[in-house]
Sequence to fold (617 residues):
Amino acid sequence: MLEIAQQVLNGLAIGAVYTLIALGLTVVFGILGIAHFAHGSVAMLGGYLTFAVMERWGLPFFASMAFAMIAGALAGLLIERLAYRPVRDAPHINAFIIALGLTMMIEGFNLLAFGADQVVIQTPYREVFNIAGIAVAELRVIVIFTACGLIGITALLIRKTKTGKAIRAVAQNRNAAILMGVNVERISQVVFGISSALGVAAGALIGALLAIAPGVGESLAVKGFAVLILGGLGSVPGAVLGGLILGISEAMAAGFISSAYKDVIAFLVMIGVLLLRPEGLLGKR
Amino acid sequence: MKQIPMFWIKGFGVFLALIGLLAVPSWLTLPYFLHLFILALIWTILAQGQNLIQGFVGYVSIAQAGFMGVGAYFSTLTSINLGWPVWCSIGLSTVFTGLVSLLVGYPSLRVKGHYFAIVTLAYNMVIFTILMTWKSVTGGEAGVPNVPRPVALDWFGVSIDFEGRSNPNYYFLVLGFAVIATGLCWLILHSRVGRVLVSIRQNESLAESIGVRIWRYKLFAFVLSASFAGLSGALYAHYIGFLNPDPFGVDQSLNAILAVILGGSGTLAGPVVGSFAVVLLPEYLRIADSYRLITYGFILILATIFLPRGLVPVISAAIGSGLRRLGVVRNG
Fold:
């Protein structure tokens, strides 16, 4: 029983990061209809940047992460402007192929700039508390709270601000939003900025929690989409639920079956949901 | 002057290309170039398979390299561990890969567009993880050394062997398979099945509403595409002679997509041109390995934005309009 509680806790931390990734993906997908597959690679770029800033300038973890998030948001603007906007009116699959090309480019850039060795971001949060027999690592708790904070801020941004209202309007009906005077091009830029910043934060947290290495970005993007498939398209509560399910089932698999096959089990869960409930757990039929 | 129908010009072009490919070993004296041509033809089989699902049906599958790995490992392991004849292993690897894809294809084809792409990508990752981790069977990252080559054939007393790299006989073997694969795609494209597949790409809901059981056709295209990949994997393994999971990662699946897009998705010549481009370009440009990903990604993006239909339609349109201006051809 303790063992299970322990794995659930471990799963919560990684699940929170998956939710963060999925949130960035679902915002872009909801507004622009683009399956932004390069999101995972952007996240890895952010993780590497955080690491580099900490090493070079000696800034603390969260300051470095904030810096990387700003850089990531700018990268997101560039990606939207240069790569996605030219194919805005083409079939959606073209945008997806662009995303694959971007993935290759960003992965290639990461490899060139930061090397092929895996990188672990060292944080000062190394305490481990013992609560009722469960080992609670300080780092995991901080990761969970950071992710929750970012998700909350994004939700507030979308719910309460004027820009957020415009974002929701474009998601509901693009043409009507244009007629109401919403500047759709600016909204796409904002959305890409937010999404990339969220991705970068997730990358930094992954770097602190596990490690960053070539190829992790792709599997992160796949897991982000797996979360969306699990939870249901365009549903933020669905993304949270899906992230938690994926994180916990992965931790359980790693703890009780085999850590080498934990990714396989995560994908099996996704395929199972597709077979039984293709619209996702909280999606509308 | 009597005008020639366009059809004959196309046929003549195919004929010339075939003669050229058959003559390759006699003028290509450098063994390394022959090696590259063999790889390009193996890639052609892979890309024709990719084109079936991506170009005809319009579903981008990102599992092609994974299925190539399934075929490669099946053929290698059955021939080494079970002592099956290599020819038999190669032949059955297509069947086995087809069966695997039949199992996994059904759930994935319930979703469309991007989601299908992502689910197939997950398959590729699962296959790669299994190849890497199931060490007792696949040998893990260290791989399988000394993959046997196909047994020499006896052609009226002349022995045709397939030993060593850059072997002209192996070139003719893969050329034969590439021609068969392309011919099969031609037959499918010009049949009722092919018209259904293309109609799914053009308007899936309409095709479904007319009463076509589209999932059967989609599954058929997916399974056939995977079988092609399995065949190319088996041919690759028995040619290279050493097998590890590296060539079967997601990157290679992306390269297969690049080959199809660059050559011309939905055309028959496109995957051929694209495969040669993907295999030969980095050698020609002397791209260092570390820049290869960036360059390929860049080409993929540029091609999608500026050349969405690929090289082959652009070139054939240019030739066609040139000939028409000269008054040599009429449409038909």
